[in-house]
Amino acid sequence: HSSKRSLTKIYAYGHDQDQRKFWLALILTSVTLQDIRNTVGNIPMEWYKDYPHIGYDLDGKKIFKPIRNKDELDEFLDKMENPDYWRTVQDKMTGADIRLSDEQVDLVHRLQEGKFGDVNFNEYEPAIDFFSNEVMIHPVTNRPQDKRSFIPSLIEKEKVGKLVHAIKMGWIKPRRPKETTPQYYDLWAKEDPNSILGRHKMHVPAPKLKLPGHEESYNPPPEYLMSEEERLAWEQQDPEDRKLSFLPQKFACLRAVPAYSRFIHERFERCLDLYLCPRQRKMRVNVNPEDLIPKLPKPKDLQPFPTTQSLVYRGHSSLVRSISTSPSGQWLVSGSDDCTVRFWEVSTARCLKTVEVGGAVKGVAWNPNPSICLVAISYDDTVVLLNPGLGDRLVSTATDQLISSYEEPEEVKEQPVQWTVAEGEGHEQGHRLILKHPKAVRQVTWHGKGDYLACVMPDNGSSLQVVIHQVSKRRTQNPFRKNKGLVQCVSFHPIRPYFFVATQRYVRVYNLIKQELTKKLMANCKWISSMATHPGGDNVICGSYDCRLAWFDLDLSTKPYKVLRHHKKALRSVAYHRHYPLFASGSDDGSVIVCHGMVYNDLLQNPLIVPVKVLKGHTITHDLGVLDVTFHPTQPWVFSSGADGTVRLFT
Amino acid sequence: MSQVQARFFTENKKYLVDDVPFSIPAASEVADLSGVINKLLEANHDGHKHVEFDFLVRGQFLRTKLANHMETENISTVWILTGSYDKTARIWSMEGKAVMTVAGHTDVVKDVAWVKRDGLSSLLLTTSLDQTIMLWEWNSERNEVKARHCCRGHAGSVDTVAVDPSRTKFCSGSWDKMLKIWSAVPTVEEDEMEEHNRPRKKQKTEQMGLTRTPLMTISGHNEAVSSVLWMDAEELCSASWDHTIRLWDAETGGQKSTLTGNKVFNCISYSPLCRRLASGSTDRHVRLWDPRSKDGSLVLLSLTSHNGWVTAVRWSPSHEHQLVSGSLDNVVKLWDTRSCKAPLYDLAAHEDKVLCVDWTENGV
């Protein structure tokens, strides 16, 4: 009955839920056709766990669970004592315990092994080939062949046509024919240091062992054996510093050689070498700090420049504030605080003429026009134009004629500066024109052509700080309306009509013809003391009281191209040479530093600035050193005047 | 055996001889001089009997040899001509006594030169910052000097002058970069025809001499000419501030060759004995050049010992290898070209810069 009626619930010990379900489903299908006992269907039976019934039968009546409560103890006893325990299964549908029959147990075993459930089924029945290699008389089918079986395929033709069209349209690119030449793999590419593969070589071969030499021999030549001192020295050295890690020993014969004591040590070290050796090449960048410094030419290559002091012009008794050379280069004029102006012959340092003036001389300037022989001397609030009478007589007399041939215009305009012609004793001494200014004049400078003269009267408040005089017309103009700061120095552009005005922190470039400000150069200095313009006209240097010399390239920018800090103390004066690429700066530390400053004609190359020589010679008096610096007009010589009352020539 | 020029005069009419200078050996004694006079008298008058004479030299009886007498009495025959920054030139005797002052320039005298220095009257030249060169005649007996010519033409201070070996021409170099050649022969003064017409001018020219213009002007230097000299009667050599030494042909005025250096040349000197040019520059070296080299510049030897600019060099007139140099470091050095490392002697007696050096005729 159990095979007919029972829905066997398989209690498989140790098997999981899935397998149980599978077999349950299997057995149910084989049995359910006959007898449906429980009508709940395929539901998890846990739902009826708490109920006394386990389902409903066909008539709708509850099917009650068998009245037996097996508790743990009973279960345990059952497990231990019941010999059929292993083949007892609780039917899920009814709740009853069913003992599996032998056939059922056999079935379960067969299923577990993966065989077919049915005993009588033979899976190794002989196969009857439907299609075999034996050629039969009659074919399988008598259907005649289609035409498409022996003509070229139409489908393929269509596909090929589509492909050809696609290739012709360029949507598909045909495959390139393979190269028939054999491609070889370069075995040694990694060894070649030039090829890419070789350079990428990260493989670091293991360090090679040193081959044994004479020191390892059991009977080395006597020179390889260490003497007593050498042995002591070897023992005192650290093991890492030693050249040989062992002492060479001498034995009479091979039999006397003992076992090698350092064997394990050596092998250990070899292992260390092998696995501690670096695995990757680290590309370290070895930058020499010297390579970063730009290579400047050596001063030797930049000759000629002044190197030594040659002459000292002695004669003044107080500090010499200003010097100037004649355009021919034969004479030098110097003005000093002892109220005299002296004229010197350059080649012999002889003072040829001394002119007394009425106050401490603040500035002297020789007219750069070679056909006019005039010197402008400024003291207190007066500027005197003096004819020194040196040099060519004709030029001297021509200058006098020029001055005396002036005709007064009809209407006399009101001028801030008074022009008077010198007479009497002044005239004998050489004074020709006297200009009286409203304030003390500090600097005088001539225009390149020799007709215009600019004077600086520094005063923080007024707008009359700079005046430009025209000697031929005896006219004075104040080019500026507004006061922009304390004017330190001015200079004319050598070629074009520009005017440079240096105040304490800025240098303003004005266009005199257009009468407007062209540029404002910002020096990084706190207080500009002096300024000089390059004879080519595109560069300006400024010296300042905070030891800086700023070189401006007007084409480059309004900030300094280079700032040089060679001096230790305040700079007093800077100057350019007219022909040679040199510039010099004199400062309160008593030295004159000459630098090579080459300006190139092509606009791409920046000026080359190389400091070339430090010229010492002046003595520092009252904390003041060199007060004025100027170059000889034709030779590579520099003159410097100092607070010690001397003018020195360096050649 | 040096010779001395002497003239004899006496108040005794019986023993008068010609008033011409005679060349007497310096080692002559009274007897020799006596013999000379006797011979002269015999030649002039017949029947002259030998007389022993006594000689007075400058009021002193001649007792010893003439040379010794002269030494003891300090009678010199060598005169030193110097120009100075006080606008005058001076003639000195060997002992250092200023015999004559030549004043006439209006500005500093830069260079002086003897044109000829024999007998009674000598000609000398002075150049100055006032762009003129003056030719003077000096009568050594009467100790008078007279300006013969004033050579105008330069446009700048005349720094150097040199007389040619034939003593007929001289060349001057100046700050106007030119060289000018002038005639050194003094022309006789014009007649007094001009006197009436232009008395004022005559007075001026009397003081300064007749104006003279150059025979030739040579240009070619780019800067001031610092030193000029004649190598022979047709070749001139000039050194200048444009770092070159140029050789010129005096006949045509053309440039023959150029030697280029690095620094301003202060002075040059030529020695016909060894045919070398020595130059002093604004560095401390004295350089020897071969003027015949065609290459441009070949410094044969460079003598370095001075500490300042070398302002004067001069070859010895008698010695082939000796030259003397003066410099701004107050030292005068005597060099032998065979020992180029160091000078033979250092003469440090000046207290200030040495501007010019020269040799005497005998090489002293």
TrEMBL record, chain A:
GO CC, alphabetical: nucleoplasm; PeBoW complex; preribosome, large subunit precursor
Ranges: WD repeats: 313-354, 619-651
Subcellular localization, as worded in the UniProt entry: Nucleus, Nucleolus; Nucleus, Nucleoplasm
Assigned keywords, A-Z: Nucleus, Repeat, Ribosome biogenesis, rRNA processing, WD repeat
Coarse class of the protein's main subcellular location: nucleus
Protein's UniProt keywords contain Repeat: yes
InterPro entries referenced in this protein's UniProt entry, alphabetically: BOP1/Erb1, BOP1_N_dom, WD40/YVTN_repeat-like_dom_sf, WD40_repeat_CS, WD40_repeat_dom_sf, WD40_rpt
GO molecular function, one term: ribonucleoprotein complex binding
Record SUPFAM superfamilies: WD40 repeat-like
Keyword Nucleus among UniProt keywords: yes
GO-annotated biological processes: maturation of 5.8S rRNA from tricistronic rRNA transcript (SSU-rRNA, 5.8S rRNA, LSU-rRNA); maturation of LSU-rRNA from tricistronic rRNA transcript (SSU-rRNA, 5.8S rRNA, LSU-rRNA)
CDD domains: WD40
BOP1 N-terminal domain segment(s): 48-306
Database matches in HAMAP family: BOP1
Functional summary from the UniProt entry: Component of the PeBoW complex, which is required for maturation of 28S and 5.8S ribosomal RNAs and formation of the 60S ribosome.
UniProt xrefs under PANTHER family: RIBOSOME BIOGENESIS PROTEIN BOP1, RIBOSOME BIOGENESIS PROTEIN BOP1 BLOCK OF PROLIFERATION 1 PROTEIN
UniProt family annotation: Belongs to the WD repeat BOP1/ERB1 family.
Subunit structure: Component of the PeBoW complex, composed of BOP1, PES1 and WDR12. The complex is held together by BOP1, which interacts with PES1 via its N-terminal domain and with WDR12 via a high-affinity interaction between the seven-bladed beta-propeller domains of the 2 proteins. The NOP7 complex associates with the 66S pre-ribosome. The PeBoW complex associates with DDX27, BOP1 interacts directly with DDX27.
Protein name: Ribosome biogenesis protein BOP1
Species whose genome carries this gene: Cyprinus carpio carpio
Taxonomy of the source species: Eukaryota, Metazoa, Chordata, Craniata, Vertebrata
Automatic annotation (TrEMBL), chain B:
Subcellular location: Nucleus, Nucleolus
One Pfam family linked to the record: WD40
Biological process terms in GO annotation: maturation of 5.8S rRNA from tricistronic rRNA transcript (SSU-rRNA, 5.8S rRNA, LSU-rRNA); maturation of LSU-rRNA from tricistronic rRNA transcript (SSU-rRNA, 5.8S rRNA, LSU-rRNA)
UniProt domain NLE: residue ranges: 4-70
Name of protein: WD repeat domain 12
Keywords assigned by UniProt, alphabetized: Nucleus, Repeat, Ribosome biogenesis, rRNA processing, WD repeat
InterPro entries noted in UniProt: NLE, WD40/YVTN_repeat-like_dom_sf, WD40_PAC1, WD40_repeat_CS, WD40_repeat_dom_sf, WD40_rpt
Cellular component, GO annotation: PeBoW complex; preribosome, large subunit precursor
Positions of WD repeats: 102-146, 151-183, 218-258, 268-290, 303-339
Primary location recorded for the protein, binned into one broad class: nucleus
SUPFAM superfamilies, A to Z: WD40 repeat-like
